[in-house]
Amino acid sequence: SPSVSCRCSLCADARDSIAKVAYGRIFGWIVCKINELLAENVDPEVELREIGILDIFGFENFAVNRFEQLCINLANEQLQHFFNHHIFQLEQAAYKEEELPWDTITFNNNEPVLNLLLAKPLGLLSLLDEQSAFPQATDKTFVDKLNSSFKGNLHFQPGRAHVLGFSIVHYAGKVQYTAVGFLERNRDTLPANVSRLFINSITPLLSVLFTGNSHCGVLHAGLWQCFGFLDCWIFLCPHQHSLMMLMERMYSANPHFVRCIKPNSQKKPGVVDSQVVLQQLQYNGLLETIRIRRDGFSWRPSFEEFAER
Q: Which residues form the Myosin motor domain (predicted)?
């Protein structure tokens, strides 16, 4: 009956919430404990010199792409923009400032895609948050809102036929997203009785993680999902916050890039599909990177170094 089906759905949602939240908090607790052990003898007054290694999960386009894939691909859009900023914009700005003879190298700027996703108040994620705040809203009303808001946008395409979804033309190509479950996964509410269940757990660790504001337990799951560390549902606000923190840290660092290329789409050893490789070189901006490295100035000594030589 419909009532039984509804109860089953609620039970499944509660089960998934329990698994996800417990996994996420324990993961955060483990990371904090590792950091405490590694930094045990570090003087908090001494400035740390760090080398950070970011190994991202990679751009994804499956037969069915859901909310999680949108979050992963958003992270990759941000990182591609960061790559463009350092390799092309800052590099060529330095040549212009020095008044060197230079022919500007154009590149595929993905800012319009980021604006489509992140602009406020009319970006896709802002509209998703808006719809998530309405109890009467559905995945269909969300898609209808997107279709009306982004009509004519070159990076947005409405879903085909009777498919409840939409497509985003990312820097790496078009991805069709299935909108079913977007609102529920974005809301990602944990019932109060489930929280009480954790607090009163006979497992000491779970009780500690859910009692008060346990800093070590609340490590934003969205960030780890982006980079392939955590196989569970994620929610948008922590995801965006984690991504923002990551980008702030990266923009303050001195980055070096290693771009990995997939030799084929079938994940087979010893097979190189030249078309697949070329496509990646093109959308990653590596052909333009090669050109700017070839034509640019790779060694930049200070005046003192130059005079001494």
A: 1-309
